[in-house]
Design goal:
Helices cover about 15% and strands about 55% of the residues. By secondary structure, it is mainly β. The strands form 4 sheets. An 8-stranded antiparallel β-barrel has the order 7-8-9-10-11-12-13-16. A 4-stranded mixed sheet has the order 2-3-4-5, covered by helices on one side. A hairpin with a 6-residue loop joins strand 11 and strand 12.
């Protein structure tokens, strides 16, 4: 919430304060602006008429019969406050706001009186005490440079197991401007393969991975990033169709890289899709089944395996 300054003062105190912040920037126009006031005025009905504003200006400063002073005042209502835009002699607009019309009319009268007679004494009349609440427009809060995110979704790997296999993943990390860093864990669905010439014998394979992935977004507005990072996992195979059934495990290490793209669904939620390739560095050990005819290779992980994933990301 924007701060609220409460100032209790006479009309002259409030008008003079707004004149300092709004009107003194026009004092240099006074030499050519002395004379009757030509006013163009638009405002809601509750804000009074142009004649009332002209009378208020006349009460504060004398208006001679020389050159005409041209001014334009437009008052609009915005939510719970009124906003005034004042131009003098077609110059730059000055914008100020208050909860009620009366305060804006008084402030505009002071500003115009200062332009007409900047060196004179403003003739403030007696006025009752009143409380004026000034509330500046809310400042735009810059988006934080550092953001955290959590995500979950599904993944696909084409060639690490005997056939293409799906999986589910969870990920979390942080993002700083165009860079992000994520830690992702994936549990892959099991896959089976058979030994050549032995369709009833083979191995069932299970696999999990953990990856640390930095990504860089070349053009922030596109939300299209390039990612490159290592993956570490454990691949386990259990034989079937032969006795005794044996199990073997292998440590798996790869480098995964590829593009990713996000579609923002809201300020905190995004749909994310990615694709790429995993290059196996460690773990391409053959899984061998011992049969009556000797050793038969059931599966060896491919050097290159295609990847795809999609899921949701929550930012906070």
């Amino acid at each position: 919430m924007s701060p609220v300054w409460r100032v209790t003062c006479l009309v002259r105190c409030y008008s003079a304060a707004l004149a300092v912040s709004v009107g003194l920037g026009w004092c240099s126009l006074a030499g050519a602006a002395q004379g009757p006031l030509e006013l163009r005025y638009t405002a809601p009905n509750e804000c009074g008429t142009a004649e009332a504003l002209q009378r208020a200006v006349s009460a504060l400063a004398p208006i001679g019969n020389k050159a005409t002073l041209s001014a334009e005042l437009a008052i609009t209502k915005s939510e719970d406050q009124y906003v005034a835009e004042l131009r003098v002699e077609g110059g730059k607009a000055r914008v100020f706001s208050a909860p009620g019309c009366d305060a804006l009319i008084e402030a505009a009268a002071v500003v115009l009186a200062l332009v007409i007679d900047p060196r004179g004494s403003l003739r403030f009349g007696a006025a009752p005490d009143r409380q004026v609440v000034l509330q500046p427009p809310p400042a735009t809060q810059p988006s934080p440079a550092l953001a955290y995110h959590l995500g979950a979704g599904t993944a696909l790997d084409t060639s690490t197991l005997p056939h293409a296999a799906g999986g589910v993943f969870v990920r979390g990390g942080l993002a700083v401007r165009r860079w992000s860093l994520s830690l992702q864990g994936t549990d892959w669905l099991p896959a089976s393969g058979t030994a050549p010439g032995y369709p009833q014998a083979g191995g069932r394979f299970k696999w999990w991975t953990i990856g640390l992935t930095p990504c860089f977004t070349p053009i922030a507005a596109s939300r299209f990033a390039w990612c490159l990072g290592p993956e570490l996992g454990r691949l386990r195979g259990v034989g079937f169709g032969v006795e005794p059934s044996r199990a073997a495990t292998a440590t798996w290490l790869a480098i995964a890289f590829g593009p990713a793209w996000e579609l923002r669904l809201s300020s905190r939620l995004a749909f994310r899709v990615g694709a790429g390739v995993a290059v196996t560095v460690l773990g391409r050990h053959p899984f061998v089944l011992e049969t009556s005819q000797g050793a038969s290779v059931v599966h060896t992980s491919a050097r290159l395996s295609g990847r795809a994933n999609l899921g949701l990301e929550l930012y906070f």
